[in-house]
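Sequence only, no structure available. Ideas?
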Amino acid sequence: MKYGIIDNLKTDHNKEGITKLFRELKNTGYEFAINKTSDYSIDSSFEVKNKPLLIKESDVIIVLGGDGSLLETARNSAEFSKPILGVNYGKLGFLADVKEDDMIDRIKMIEKGQYFIEERIMLNAFYEDKILCALNDIVLDRGYSQRILKASVDINGRFFTTYLSDGVIVSTPTGSTAYNMSAHGPILQPGVPAFVITAMSPHALAMRPIVVPDDSVITISAESNYNEMILSSDGQESITIPSFGKITVKKAEYKAKFIKFHDSDYYNLLREKLGWGGFKDRVSK
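Reply:
I predicted one. Tokens follow.
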């Protein structure tokens, strides 16, 4: 098994602890490559490869960072069907849910075949000759303008509604706990074959989110007469949409693949990371 390490660590981490971790990885005897040499990994002498080559040539991608690092890696690795192990060095750690202290044991479990692959559907957004890919969500918002955004939505060629709002979110089940949740959209369990369409601060009492099947083709027509609208994927990549631009959003042909274990518990993540049900002492056993 070849492991590719995406090092997205910041310089303010515990250098002694992470350097020790890299030495322990080296001492396992397993085959590792890394995307860069840093103060943390320099003594481990891992082979260094650029990210595209690292992803292409590895059997498993290990992401050291936060959820944002995992989102970026998922977009870059999905078309190569590479499974990802996310080790949390960020703030939340909802997607990158492996703890630093458990990393070596988890890799040994992978070597023994004691894991499973959890697939996550992804989105593509098309505008003219441009394509955005997302694991969490595709968002059309008003950009720098303070004016209300007017956008009509068709689903499978049939008119659905016209939003007057700050923007429109099309979310996957994975992204339902991100921007969608903050906009009061529903949470979908990761395996649910559906998307959520949610308006951001809609100017209507009854403009509720809607859940649609994941084979739906969603067309968003920007009807505001200004050229500052922004179409973004996972809050990381974006393009400008002009007045009356038309965007098509649909399920991507490929899926993100996450490595999970017998004790992986999505509902525990909801409680521990997002405070589902209120304070932790009220929802813990």
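Residues 15-27 form the longest helix (13 residues).
Hope that gets you unstuck.
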